[in-house]
Amino acid sequence: MPDSAPVQSFVEQFDALRGELPGAALPWLCDLRAAGIERFASLGLPAPGVEAWKYTRLRPLETTDFLPATAHTVNIDHLPTLLPQGGIDHRVIFVNGRLMQCLAMPGERPEGVELGGLADALRRDPEAVGEHLGRIGAPDGQALLALNTAMMRDGLMLRVKRGVSVALPIEVVYVGAAGPQPLAFHPRNLIVLEPGSRATVVEHHIGLGAGAYFANSGTEIRIGEGAELHHYKIQDEGAEAVHVATQHVHLEANALYDAFTLTTGARLSRHEVSVRLTGPGAECHLNGAYMVRGKQHCDTTTTIEHMAPRTSCREIFKGVIDEQARAVFQGRIVIHRGAQQSNGHQLSKALLLSNRAEIDTKPELEIYADDVKCSHGATVGDLDRDALFYLRARGIPEAAARAILIEAFLADTINEVAAEGLCPALMASIGHWVSSATRRAAS
Q1: What is the CA radius of gyration of the chain?
Q2: Distance between CA 169 and CA 319 in Å, rounded?
Q3: Alpha helices in 374-419 (DSSP H)
Q4: In this structure, are residues 425 and 83 in contact, taking their beta carbons and an 8 Å threshold?
Q5: For 275-292, what is each residue's pLDDT tens digit?
Q6: 356-389 burial by CB neighbour count: b if 16+ within 10 A, else e?
């Protein structure tokens, strides 16, 4: 075991809690948890010596003693929604990683849809959960996913049966409620779409209170043949939060995974996604935008593996970095042998609004087939001076002109979002961030 006080602290927390974690009487789950904590103890916290963590160091975890989060309640009247009021019939709310039953408003669930918390699903139908949990995304070299596997207590459980289409988006609100002491929670989400089904999931991560907390989530997604999942995430955690999200997605033939992530919150955040296109005709859209300032650190790391012929992916991430903030984008597309006639496109663009802002970009292509179409690119720069001059020459103040250019830079990624009513909320978030940045610059 690495000589690390934070690692030892988490191991001791697991030893103290293992008997009361959901599913403690299930042998297969106990074995899964034990393997997770053993793997975490062996790997230790990720450090720059690990290639995938070359540009990100988890200093808050090294210097802060995070305690396990306990049950917490919040006032539903103070929780925002990203969807029009008529579109939140399917809404699930988690506080510090636990489902708040009294706040869940699922409305009229279509027949063939299982929606709720993982802890409840483990009590109700553990065999069905065991078919997928820990099988879509094995921790292997991912230490924090291994920790999540050991410590998971609750999270989203969504299963859509064969051929069922969920017409309205499912909004999932994850609340980090800071306490007098730094807290840690490890939600585990499991989404399974059977062949021919369709669903839209909108994640909204928010923080309440000014304290520090560690949200370490793991998500496993299986999309069956011909199924479609539209998956959107808005990360607006508290200012002192550490947000680490590890996600594994498995697509079968002719399946579609359409994803978008907007990142504005947390002191330190990492969004790590691994997608495997295992069946012919599978398609992945993996897009996002991020806006960071102050001393925020934002890391986006993605891997898309084409494992079957005629698969395709499109990946576009755009970022705006201000003041002393730092961003990381690592995107890797792998075309395996036998994945002929596959298409892969990746693009990373970033605006640096300060001479102290920084970004590390590492786009990668690995191609082991000869009949493919692939491209990747990365650009980093300041606002277009000619465009800024053009706007100012027409009487637009500099602050307003800069805001227009920043919003236009990010708008085309937002326009990729298919969920009805979500685009205005995303643009409003961008506008709020830009306005706040303008006020800070003027003060």
Answers
A1: 21
A2: 26
A3: 385-393, 398-414
A4: yes
A5: 999 999 999 999 999 999
A6: ebbbebebeeebebeebebebebebeebeeeebe
Structure tokens at 370: 């000869």
β-pairing, 67-68 vs 343-352, is unpaired
Contact 202, 172 (CB under 8 A): yes
Nearest in space to 429 (alpha carbons), one of 414, 409, 412: 414
355 Cβ neighbours under 8 A, 6+ residues apart: none
At 1, the pLDDT band (50, 70, 90 cuts) reads: very low
Q: How far is CA 269 from the centre of its chain?
A: 10
Q: With contact defined as beta carbons under 8 Å apart, do 288 and 317 qualify?
A: yes
User: With 0-12 CB in 10 A as exposed, 13-18 as middle and 19+ as buried, what is 216?
Assistant: buried
Q: How far apart are CA 286 and CA 251, in angstroms?
A: 13
Whose structure tokens read 């939140």?
A: 88
Residue 397 pairs with which residues in a beta bridge?
Answer: none
Of 289, 227, 277, 297, which Cα lies nearest the Cα of 416? 289
Of the candidates 55, 59, 46, 50, which has an alpha carbon nearest to the alpha carbon of residue 361? 55
* Residue 40 one-letter amino acid: F
Residue-range domain boundaries for the chain: 5-278, 385-443
d(CA 177, CA 237): 10
pLDDT tens-digit series, residues 311-369 = 999 999 999 999 999 999 999 999 999 999 999 999 999 999 999 999 999 999 999 99
Burial per residue of 36-74, b for 16 or more beta-carbon CB atoms within 10 angstroms, e otherwise? bbebbbebbbbbeeeebbebbebebbeebebebbeebeb
Q: In whole angstroms, what is the distance from residue 41 CA to residue 35 CA?
A: 10
Task: Answer whether 138's CB lies under 8 Å from 36's CB.
Answer: no
191, β-bridge pairs:
158, 221
What is each CA distance from 346 to 59, 333, 355, in whole angstroms? Answer: 30, 8, 26
Per-residue burial over 143-173, b if 16 or more Cβ lie within 10 Å, else e, is bbbbbbbbbbbbbbbbbbbeebebebbbbbb
Q: Residue 11: which H helix or E strand, with range?
A: helix 5-17
